[in-house]
User: Fold this.
Amino acid sequence: MWRARWLTFGVVVLLVIAGCQQRQAAQAPSAPVTLTIESWRNDDLPVWQDTILPAFMKRYPNIKVVFAPTAPTEYNAALNAKLEGGTAGDLITCRPFDLSLALFNKGFLAPVNDLSGMENFGDVAKSGWITDDGSTVFCVPMASVIHGFIYNGSIFKELGLSEPKTEAEFFAVLQKIRQDGRYAPLAMGTADQWEAATMGFQNIGPNYWKGEEGRLALIQGQQKFTDAQYVAVWRQLARWRPYMPRGFQAQKYPDSQNQFTLGKAAIYPAGSWEISLFRRQAQFELGAFTPPAPAGATDCYISDHVDIAIGMNAKTQHPQEARTFLEWVASQEFAELYSNGLPGFFTLSNHKITLQDPLAQTFINWRGLCKTTIRNSYQLLSRGEPNLENELWRVSAEVIKGALRPEQAARQIQTGLEKWYKPKQ
Assistant:
């Protein structure tokens, strides 16, 4: 009897000790975890190091995050090699559309549908990082760039010009600048070709094909580039020719940037990514206006093109911590920090944010005035040969130069697309 009592007492003591140890373990802080972000954006390293990551680590002190970018031209090859070799970081910065889709299809990126905060992103925001059937999102959208026109406020004041709202007003402004003779009306060349499509065709085009309505109709085969609304875009581009700089056929992208920031041109067909550079280099007031609406238009449309997102390495050793970071990326705090840290790169979430840069705020305000879309060549339609995106560069530049008529450009684009693309029904 005595022995049994002592055995029982011993068991109780052991259980009490074990319980105390478990409570202490539960109360003890977990071991710090380090996450690494792979990215091609080496230009924004200071923003991540000085602003974004300190804010996250203050909120989650046991998760250290290291931003480890690779040069943009080397990123795709380097990232694929790391993923194949099992040495890639925990978080993967995602380029839009097919490059990231290929990573997901190979099993390198984890689905993020069930992350808290994904409800903050609409269909257009997620379009760059979603499977073809629309069932799985594999990266959390971070930012877009918005198209429009940036202008020299000093020249506008000097010449008594107002921001044009319509196509007719736009050409009236260009004509006044041309008649003055001291400034190039439009700072753009065609030597690199891509500007003619990106800052020309894709900038003004959504007003003609009605944004997402037209873009999706192309994918579904319900519209063609030979339809009147697409030909009309090239017709407007052809009208730009008299207002381009002298020798624009040989003018390259950096030349146009310099021409504008030196005050030698009045209007720059733009993407919002120019804001930071122009802020540093231009010694005059900067303004911006939306793509002018064609006659009879009742709605306005802007290209609010998806640019960058971030996903989780499917083989990370720290999935819970990686998910915590991605959920924070979907928050308003991140939206404010990123959009202010990189003026001209705008959060894709539906959070209402205030930007410190007035020109950036002008661009983001357009979301409340106009319907948004993305470039119509990026989803599905540039997977074959001839490559639609590259062909749009070529024909748009040729139209501006006068080497192709708008109708010819439309036929060449549609014929090339039909050689390989079967509409998605």
Summary: The beta strands are 33-39, 63-69, 91-94, 140-152, 184-186, 265-271, 286-289, 301-312, 346-347, 371-373. Residues 2-27 form the longest helix (26 residues). The first strand starts at residue 33 and ends at 39. The chain has two domains: 33-143+305-357, 146-304+374-418.
